[in-house]
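Shipment paperwork, digital attachment
Item: protein structure file
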Amino acid sequence: MLYKGKRNAESVFTAVKELIDEKRIDSRAIKLIYAGSEGSYWDTWATKTNLNSCTINYGVLSHEKSVELQQNASINLAMNWVIKESLGAFGGKFFEYLLSEVPILMLLSGEKDSEIERANEEINFGIVTYDFEAENVRFIKQFILEHYLYWIENNACKRIINKDGLQKYQWENIMAPLKKIIFNM
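Attachment content:
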């Protein structure tokens, strides 16, 4: 969910548009795919950057189809709106993305989130960037281009996630302390 404009992927569309205009990526070889209930935002960003031909908006899909899209992606885009009271709050979609083992472009709005940055240091899931940073589009371009070039050379997604670091973020391990408290009552 894009939470009525609180999450903003415009910098991702800008980065892709610049890479296409610079002839560093082929517009026919890239798709910006959205599945969810707030696709009108996706369509607006596509229109604003003239990327409609590269964009697919599936609307609401079943969970099974959504997971299939995530697993077949070359990069999954995770967006979050961060406030001081919710630092380190990982949405359920983030955990689904981790399970897909596809690189994640984490685009945050609001506050800096050192917990998410630390998780990326431990897991190496991809990149964490903030929509308010001046170098945001440059970072996103580098990330997309690196993975695009790998895909062109290898015809496969570059798997970068540190599986050992991922153990800490699996539901069984996250819930273990709570289970211990409940069962010791």
